Amino acid sequence: MHLGLGMNQALDISMELEEPSGVNTANSQLDRQAIEELVHRYCYYFDLNLPEELSKLFALDAVVDYGPEVANLVGRNKILEMVSKGLSETFLATSHHISNLMITFQSDNLAKSTSYLYAWHKYHNREEIGHLWGGYEHEFEKIEGVWLIKSLKLFGVGMQDFHRSNMHSNGRKP
Question: The domain containing residue 82 runs over which residues?
Answer without folding.
Answer: 62-164
